Amino acid sequence: MSDLHTFVQRAERLGCSLTRLTVAGSFLVATVCVLEKQGLLDTHPNVLGARVIEIESRDDAGGAHGEFLVETRALLDRLARLSSSDTRTLDVPPAQPRVAWAGIAPPRSDWQPCGEVSSAEWVATARAGIDEVAAANGLGSQIVTEVRRTVWSRPLVELPFAVAGLAFAAFGLGFIVDGTDEIVRLTSHGTWIRASTTRGDVLARA
């Protein structure tokens, strides 16, 4: 569960208060919302981060399936207890009321390739955006919030169908790393855009 622990730690640092856990057989998908739409009239996209982790499946479970929406902080506490004990079974925190982003799951198949970009370019994009948002500090919370939403919903020059928030989420969750030449591969499905690396996926949906 060390991969899950690392992912959830990074998600909490980004301000992700909830984590969706989806179990399908021997795989666990942990999903967080890094950038969330604010109401029905908000035209900015949701930006999600997802990490797929292989887990042990009991022989008598018959291919376990389930979905849980839990507090990120509570999940971190349970993972810390798990790492300091002999048990290998995660005690899932209490389920939380459903929120809009958690009620919509991305498609599982039929994604179409639509581009690729170097991780170095996206690291630079993320850092530039972080600096731009930081420059607004001290101007009032409403201004900072609007600057943040504007910066991360900005179309990328090299990939105009994708938004800068994808680079921010990938960088903040550790899916892209400084000093590597890894390629970020983009695929699309309807209004969804997905960016994938060997460490995880980030997704945006208008």
Provide a quick synopsis of the model.
By secondary structure, the chain is α+β, with helices and mostly antiparallel strands.
Structure commentary:
It is a single chain. The chain is an alpha+beta fold. The chain folds into 2 domains: 2-103, DNA Polymerase III, Chain A, domain 2 (Roll); 112-205, no CATH class. The chain is 30% helix and 28% strand. The protein is built from 5 helices and 8 strands. The chain has an 8-stranded antiparallel β-sheet. A hairpin with a 2-residue loop joins strand 6 (183-189) and strand 7. Helix 3 crosses helix 5. The longest helix is centred in the middle third of the chain and has 16 residues, at 119-134.
Count of DSSP H/I helices: 5
Terminus-to-terminus distance:
32 Å
Which structural category fits the helices and strands? alpha+beta
Oligomer: single chain
CATH architectural group of the largest domain: Roll
Order of helices and strands: HEEEEHEHHHEEE
How helix-rich are the residues, as a percent range? 25-40%
Strand arrangement, major sheet:
4-1-2-3-8-7-6-5
Q: How many structural units, i.e. domains?
A: 2
Could you say which overall geometry the principal axes of the C-alpha atoms support?
globular
Low-confidence segments: none
- CATH topology term of the largest domain: DNA Polymerase III, Chain A, domain 2
Q: Specify the CATH class of the largest domain.
A: Alpha Beta
β-strand amount: 25-35%
Number of strands: 8
Mean residue pLDDT: 90
Radius of gyration: 17 Å
- Largest sheet properties: 8 strands, antiparallel
